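Dear support,

I submitted the protein below through the web form. The confirmation email said the job was done, but the results page showed an empty box. After a refresh the structure appeared. I'm attaching both so you can tell me whether what I see now is the final result or a partial one.
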Amino acid sequence: MLVNRTGRVAALAATLTLATAVVTAGPAAALSGTAAQATVTGVHNTYNNPTYPFLAQALDAGTGMIELDTWTDVFTQQWKVSHDSPTSNTNNCVNAASPADLYTGGANKDLGSCLDDARVWLTAHPTAGPLFIKVEMKAGFQANLGMGPSQFDSVVNSHLGSTLFRPANLLGGFPTLDAAAKANAWPSRAALAGKAVVYIIPGTVELANPLDHLHTDVEYGTYLKNLAASGNTAQASTFPAVLGAQSGDPRNQYSDTTIRPWFVFFDGDAATYVNGIDTSFYDTNHYILTMTDAQNVAPALNDTNPAVADAQARVALLAKDHASIVSNDWSSLPTVLGEVLPRG
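What the results page shows now:
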């Protein structure tokens, strides 16, 4: 459908007005402490264009985390963004070059274009953020075919540029990311305004593949450790995350003990975390903990459109249970998506 220029400008103005209202409202400015001591919300599969025609609209709604599913298309050497198509893009990314581009043009672009949209939006909203960008590597890396961690870094670094908060920024003078996190070396939210923080998890296809014996978390964790050993940590763009809610320190699953200190991001099911797991472990050590499917914590809420008061109560509950990021599908509730709460 064609939209005339006047209509596009009016729509853009209305969207930017909403964005300004969302990102400047709420208790964020009153929070003290580092970014690891706050709880934000995030929209699951944010790239889904039936939910948001443009990725920027999710950012306008105030979400503190966007999620992108990506596939390694070794034939085109592109990182495709879609839910279930390894060789095509099905998403709401438009490859914006300026704020005016965020709400116009054709969608269905690659990962770099999605990151461009995030960068352009953050540049236009320098007081917003930090924005967490969760990337699910649906089928994992394909390093032997030219699409491994170093190539992923090239894409993320080139498209996010100076808006990116890298592992090296947290590391500082500490020997490992674990040591830095335990020392609460995270900057404040104010210091991270306008910044993006990328983390990756293994994908559903990868985990179901009996022939894949090197999953995303181990592969990137090993790569990050090796970069540090060679003095090249600045090259790393991304934080690897441990996937799956379990008691104790879930990094103990890694037989290579030398990669464990390079994981400070964790991701798992909210209902599992709050039913018998001591999640204070993550808060005490200032690790970033994403709790997914917030609606499924008892009593279960509507998947997509619960009552605002119920959704706010759920976010508050998970914040008290030490979540850093509360992931949900409540795209129609900007008053919930824009919340920033004290953690714990």
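Response: this is the final, complete result; the empty box was a page-load delay. Residues 1-30 have pLDDT under 50 and may be disordered.
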